[in-house]
Write a structure and sequence with these properties.
39% helix, alpha/beta
Length: 366
Amino acid sequence: MMKVFPLEPVSFEEAKQFQFKLVDAISNEFRGTEMFQLGDVGVTRQGMPATTRKVERVLASFFGCEDCALVRGAGTGAIRNALAAYLEPGDAMAVHHAPIYTTTKETLRMMGIDCVSVDLHDDEAVKDAVQRVKLLYVQHTRQQPSDRYSLEHVIQTAKSARPDIPVIIDENYAVFKTQRIGVQMGADVSTFSAFKLLGPEGIGVVLGPQSCVATIHQRNYSGGGQVQGHEAMELLRALTMAPVLIAVQIEQVQALSDVLNDGAVPAILQAYIANAQSRTVIAQLNEPIAADVVAAVNEFGGASYPVGAESKYEVLPMIYRVSGSFCESDPDLKPYLLRINPMRASARLVVDILNKAISKVMSDHA
């Protein structure tokens, strides 16, 4: 079994405090009855729906940064807009020496960015790299099982070597799951998908300095490209519910790992927690039947593929394949591994679905 280094999760109490802090920020920006309204649409004198701008101010206040931009394109759109605010075609950008997420890789290709690979575990390599590039880009969650770097340490190392280096963080699967995100640790910009936090489809969030946000707003003047007021309000309401729901999910991830290691599913040899994108349980089967098990779970009330990986549509537990990048160091393990996210379910239900699906697969193979 490979060794992994999951991020430190938030506690249930911390999740409640996130919720309370967000509602505090909403109360400072909105009158009480405004929260019952859908929100406006159109390009106003300020270049966007007034409600959208109010929601952006709430999020900037909550995360303790200068400003915020809501954009289309979910997490990919947020990353793309943030990078474009700092980089020109042909500029060099430092990235971790690891597989880059597929849509991010396509963004870098489209922009013609020269990627300089650096091992973020090596302080001296980071200090050297930031002298030779225009920007440092870091993914908060793990890109590969061996990743163990502290995000805050990487940011501090880069800034100590070159204080003016812009640092942009991909926060997908980290918001409300970790105590702090990049902009709260000294990074310039944090980006994430609101869809992964129960929000509406296709909305991304960019948090950062006013200069970055102003550039994004200026370039996105077209009315058709705006996040409309009713979408921003839907996002805001969803975010108030996300922290505690995520904390329950984190609790059940731990419970599931524990019961699997206690033998609740005899066909599973070992289980462990990993940030394989989201915080999940990786379970190793005794036999190389992972693909068949994934195909069988649908019959018993489990989901075998994501919609938005923790979107508002994901209620049933998700039992699906591990990514190719996750198994890159040991590809022979892939047929033995399951990636499991309880979503809104209990560990008990996940165990029941696993036992039924595995029993069916073993029966079919007999």
